[in-house]
Amino acid sequence: MKLPVKRWLTFVDETEAPEGEAPLRKIAIVAIVANPYAGRSVEDLKPMIDASVDLGKAIAERAGQAMHPFKGLSYGKGGVVGTGGEQEHVNALLTTAFAEPLRAVLGGAQAWISSMTKRGAPGCTIDIPFNHKDALYVRSFYDGITVTLHDAPLPDEIAIIAGLANRGRIGARVGGLRPEDVKGVDGLR
User: In this model, does residue 189 exceed pLDDT 60?
Assistant: First the structure.
């Protein structure tokens, strides 16, 4: 199975930080693909899972470009399946097979990737949750990006989304694990 991308959407949200700190850049890359199973229930979704590898590579490449000049340190994924499909269709496209290319773009991320999926129609909004790429419990990186899909997904489409950020929240101060405290992760102590 091939899942050619019909449309690409790129969202960039950059917030200035106090002097001396890097701005907070959050990006979301959206690939709109045709849903090969729209309007019908299929028991075996493995062909979609297998096809998601190439989709993950294409999204990861665009995500790395959109983060420039910053390095992605947190991530999330998600998607919206059109009303002619099932939520399980979008979930089949967001498994580990899809996520591994994104991890590679970030230099080998270790942590579980937060995600959100749902059914929706053109104009829907979805929040893509973020967490630190190497240590899930770094609270200052709990964040996300809101994406509004103005003209997607159509009933027979799926919007697949990957999001990245270059740092934790500006002004984060609720305590907890800090990235520099994590041992044995991506060159950290």
Answer: no
Distance from C-alpha of 41 to C-alpha of 123, rounded to nearest angstrom: 25
- How far apart CA 154 and CA 85 sit, in angstroms, is 10
pTM of the full predicted structure? Answer: 0.94
> 90: helix, coil or strand?
helix
Nearest C-alpha neighbor of 45 from the set 86, 83, 4: 86
- How far is C-alpha 163 from the chain's CA centre? 4
Which residue bears the tokens 């995600």?
A: 115
How many other β-carbons are positioned within 10 Å of the β-carbon of residue 68?
Answer: 9
b/e code 34-57 from CB counts within 10 Å (16+ = b): bbbbbeeeeeebeebbebbbbbbb
The upper half-sphere exposure of residue 60, i.e. CA atoms within 13 Å in the direction of its Cβ, equals 20
Count of other CB atoms within 10 angstroms of residue 174: 8
Query: Which residue type sits at 168?
Result: G
d(CA 29, CA 8): 7
d(C-alpha 67, C-alpha 26), whole Å: 8
Is the CATH number 3.30.1330.110 carried by domain 5-181? Answer: yes
- pLDDT at residue 66 tops 90: yes
CB 63 within 8 A of CB 165: no
